[in-house]
Amino acid sequence: MNMQTDLAAAEARPPRAAVNETTEMATETTLLNPRFYTTDFDEMDRIDVTPVRAEWDKLIASMKSDPNRSHFKKTDAWNETDWENMDPELRKELIDFMVSSLTAEFSGCVLYKEMKRRGNNPDICELFNYMARDEARHAGFINDALREAGIGVNLGFLTKAKKYTYFRPKFIYYATYLSEKIGYARYITIYRHLERNPEFFIHPIFRWFEQWCNDEFSHGEAFALLMKTDPRLTSGINVYWIRFFLVAVFATMCVRDHARPAFHKALGLDIEWYDREVLRKTSEISKQIFPIEIDLENPRWERGLLRLRRALGDMDAARARGGIGGAIGKAFAGARAGLVFAGLYLIPVKRNAVPENPRLEPAY
């Protein structure tokens, strides 16, 4: 892994000829693709962790000890992947999964690194330094796997070419907390399934998921503590924003997963079961900080997700057609998707009492 080189390369845009297909994939900004974010770093620098000091110091001490510092290295368990003779549809979807995962990890690295660079608050800078370190390892490890197939992502180009979305700090907290926790739930669900069914290890990278997802879990714990420093972040009108991000993150995951049927079949995973299991885990975990949860058992939820997948599929088909007809079809499908999302948002939520101490440990 050569993550330091990748990060250094981000200081200057490489020539266009250096950009391959996977780098183009990672650079795309669509409704479902992972995004790069920027925020009000001065506001984040003013965070006072005094209300959660005891738990904060424990978490930072754990991160500082760097329990996974030797984990992201290839061992004898890393067997070669026959990319050339792989089923073409599986190859396409496996690459899509890996590029999407890399982009999400590297997005976190870029955001956390920038917070550490701009900040003066020692507590916040230390946290984001450790999280940037972890995400850099994750992204670099995935990229090493892609390089084996000759399709590594040019991270330097990605840093310069990817569009950045501005989110207020509180939106960063909600979105990133859920991203980290749902990442944990996804990785551990895949890993436990493959533990029981090792014949479905379609790529060696999945053997590294257990400790990997514990990094994701601890990052989510950090954002839970950040939200706990200010009760206003999880009360009042902000509960409506929490509800928005719960629906958006959950629905995006489900739609994206259904776009990879060959990938999940090769893993021996039923997509419907997998998505329900991941959302159940994430919903249970998020009770540590969020005062509401989506009613995943409400039949309107499953029906809405199905309609959303159809609307977004129609959007993609219209975009591929192009021309005036394609533009009209895309706009119509987009309006349908917006109405479906509104319907998902309006499903009555469940309420729960947030514990005084939000800290959790991985349990799945």
Keywords:
364 residues; mainly alpha; Ribonucleotide Reductase, subunit A; 2 domains; two-stranded parallel ribbon; two-stranded antiparallel ribbon; 14 helices; 3% strand; globular; disordered N terminus
Protein described:
With 364 residues, this protein is mostly helical. 64% of the residues lie in helices and 3% in strands. It has two domains: 3-292, Orthogonal Bundle (Ribonucleotide Reductase, subunit A); 295-352. The longest helix is centred in the first third of the chain and has 31 residues, at 88-118. The relative contact order is 0.13. The model is unreliable at 1-18 (pLDDT under 50).
Give a topology summary.
Layout: H1 3-9, H2 21-27, E1 36-38, H3 41-45, H4 53-65, H5 88-118, H6 122-148, H7 155-161, E2 164-166, H8 169-196, H9 209-228, H10 238-258, H11 261-266, H12 271-286, E3 292-293, H13 299-321, H14 323-345, E4 350-351
Helix pairs in contact: 2-5, 2-7, 4-9, 5-6, 6-9, 8-9, 8-10, 8-12, 10-13, 13-14
